[in-house]
């Protein structure tokens, strides 16, 4: 079945450093979504990428979708303590009607 | 409703007992997902409902787990003969087109 791998599992950075998490699917995706889960909270939707090679930005966050629609990345520039949490990618295979399979997430800690 | 509602928020049960977890999705959302999250771990897919289609049950870990979705709305996840390894947070999410909206989860503790 569809699998979504995500690395690294953990990332510890100094405030102000950059951070990147990578996601790779075993199958071609219809779209990929990114979520953030704060400690003690539930996952919250950040963004969806649909087109091959798509790049989207949200302030200091940059999201990319690979040309083959099988991999994606999230890059945070100049991390802040408010960025702390676990970032999950989620691949959807069957169009907007398909199942949503999550990667294992990357837990980001930021040292002030 | 305003968001996805799950009940109970916390459940402590004795090993061997059955439990039912409830999810009220956002009104009109056709897709409903159940995931399990152990402490500090990722989201383990359990089951997916989409409209009137047959559910995708491929993530259910054993036949002790089952789920229903009545009338295309409320869903119940049932765990029979609970085991200690079933202890986790069970998250429900619903969606219409793209983004999944998560409930706050049910924390299940099997003692």
Number of helices of chain A: 0
Shape designation of chain A: globular
Which blocks of ≥5 consecutive residues of chain A have pLDDT under 50? none
Hey, roughly how much beta strand do the residues of chain A contain? over 45%
Structural class of the secondary structure composition of chain B? mainly beta
Q: Separation of termini of chain A?
A: 41 Å
Element order, helices and strands of chain A? Answer: EEEEEEEEEEE
Put simply, the count of helices of chain B is 0
Largest sheet of chain B: 6 strands, mixed
Radius of gyration of chain B: 13 Å
Order of helices and strands of chain B: EEEEEEEEEE
Give the mean pLDDT of chain A: 94
Description:
The complex is a heterodimer of chains A (112) and B (111). Chain A has 112 residues and is mainly β. Chain A has no helices and eleven strands. Chain A is globular, with a radius of gyration of 13 Å. Chain B has 111 residues and is mainly β. Chain B has strands at 5-7, 10-13, 19-24, 31-37, 44-50, 65-69, 75-79, 88-95, 101-102, 106-110. Chain A binds chain B through residues 1, 6, 31, 33, 35, 42-45, 48, 88, 90, 96-97, 99-105, 107, and chain B through 31, 33, 35, 40-43, 45, 48, 50-51, 56, 58, 91, 93, 95, 97-105.
């Amino acid at each position: 079945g569809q699998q979504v791998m995500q690395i690294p599992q953990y990332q510890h950075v100094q405030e102000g450093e950059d951070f990147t998490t990578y996601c790779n699917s075993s199958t071609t995706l219809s779209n990929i979504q990114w979520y953030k889960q704060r400690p003690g909270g539930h996952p919250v939707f950040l963004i969806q990428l649909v087109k091959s090679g798509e790049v989207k930005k949200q302030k200091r966050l940059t999201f990319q979708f690979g040309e083959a629609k099988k991999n994606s990345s999230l890059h945070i520039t100049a991390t802040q303590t408010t960025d702390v949490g676990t970032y999950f990618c989620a691949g959807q295979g069957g169009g907007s009607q398909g199942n949503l399979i999550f990667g294992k997430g990357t837990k980001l800690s930021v040292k002030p | 409703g305003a968001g996805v509602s799950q009940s109970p928020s916390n459940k402590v049960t004795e090993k061997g007992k059955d439990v039912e977890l409830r999810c009220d999705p956002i009104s009109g959302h056709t897709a409903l997902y159940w995931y399990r999250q152990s402490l500090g771990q990722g989201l383990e897919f359990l089951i997916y409902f989409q409209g009137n289609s047959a559910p995708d049950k491929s993530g259910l870990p054993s036949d002790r787990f089952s789920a229903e979705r009545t009338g295309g709305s409320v869903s119940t996840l049932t765990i029979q003969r609970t085991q200690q390894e079933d202890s986790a947070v069970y998250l429900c999410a619903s969606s219409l087109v793209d983004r999944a909206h998560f409930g706050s989860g049910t924390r299940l503790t099997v003692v």
